[in-house]
Amino acid sequence: MSTTENATVTCSTSGLSAAVDDGGFDAVLADFRARHLEKYRQPLTIALIAGYAVVFLLSLTGNLLVLIVVLSNKAMRTTTNYFLVNLSVADLLGTSIRPRSAQS
């Protein structure tokens, strides 16, 4: 004869308490998210947007400088530098397309 009893889990440092049964970990995790992680959602989003903006601007600047230098200076038009121009164009396309596709 077995009986199932609900136990209460309490964490003194974070103030979590939830009834634990067969699927109780999900309830504890949902309670933790609701109490503690929701307040970090907006600053985290702002930090990610700022980080993406910095990477995008640095990539745009650096790759455009490579294109300008190689294409405007006749002495820089070597086979190796054309490979660098190709890499720079691919990097520009990857940088401009990737953030939109990463959102979905």
Explained architecture:
The protein contains three helices and two strands. It has 104 residues and is mostly helical. It has two domains: 7-38, no CATH class; 40-102. It is rod-shaped and about 70 Å long.
Topology summary:
Elements: E1 7-11, E2 16-20, H1 24-37, H2 41-72, H3 79-102
Antiparallel strand pairs: 1-2
Helix pairs in contact: 2-3
Short description:
The chain is mainly α and 104 residues long. Helices cover 67% and strands 10% of the residues. The protein folds into two domains: 32 residues, no CATH class; 63 residues.
Given the C-alpha coordinates, what overall shape results?
Answer: rod-shaped
* Largest beta-sheet details: 2 strands, antiparallel
Number of domains: 2
| Unreliable segments of 5+ consecutive residues | 1-5, 11-22
| SSE run | EEHHH
Q: Any key phrases for this structure?
A:
3 helices, 104 residues, two-stranded antiparallel sheet, 2 domains, mainly alpha, disordered N terminus
